[in-house]
Amino acid sequence: MPVSSKAKEAAAATAWRRIFDYIVATAAERVAVLDRLGITPAESRALTSLDPDAGRSMRALADEWRCDPSNATWLVDRLERQGLARRVAREGDRRVKAVVLTAKGRRMRGELLESLYTPPGDLLALALGDLEALSAAASKLPSRRAPA
């Protein structure tokens, strides 16, 4: 018997509401990680969007962050002042600057991702079968980030 589109929409809405509410409810844990590392949410987004091995142009970063290039410049300036990133001339076109992580930035990015990917205690409290089902369902959702 085929599933009606209304039933599927209702199930998706319920699932999303539960996921979203859980994300909101656990926000304090993510804020504590940022506080411990001494970075802002914008800086954490910047660190996680910079590839540890390849530079990104300011234009590419502004496009990804959906902001004006001047805002991307301001954010990269902050990362540079903290020693987390630096601008380098692109090979073949020295007019274009690529933003790369420094060694300190790579370490910070690694620590940030490790901390953010540590599951909250109440998730660990779920039964193994529930965790496997949740992981299997979540694996079908698209992600821009490579698995850790």
Topology:
Blueprint: H1 5-25, H2 27-37, H3 41-49, E1 56-57, H4 58-65, H5 69-81, E2 85-90, E3 93-101, H6 103-116, H7 121-124, H8 128-138
Antiparallel strand pairs: 1-3, 2-3
Helix pairs in contact: 2-6, 4-5
Distance between the termini: 39 Å
Question: Which regions have little confidence, pLDDT < 50, spanning 5+ residues?
Answer: none
**Name given to the CATH architecture of the domain at 41-119:** Orthogonal Bundle
Radius of gyration: 19 Å
By secondary-structure content and strand pairing, the structural class works out as mainly alpha
CATH class of the domain at 41-119: Mainly Alpha
Strand order of the largest sheet: 1-3-2
Q: What fold name goes in the CATH topology slot of the domain at 41-119?
A: Arc Repressor Mutant, subunit A
CATH superfamily of the domain at 41-119: Winged helix-like DNA-binding domain superfamily/Winged helix DNA-binding domain
Number of helices: 8
**H/E element sequence:** HHHEHHEEHHH
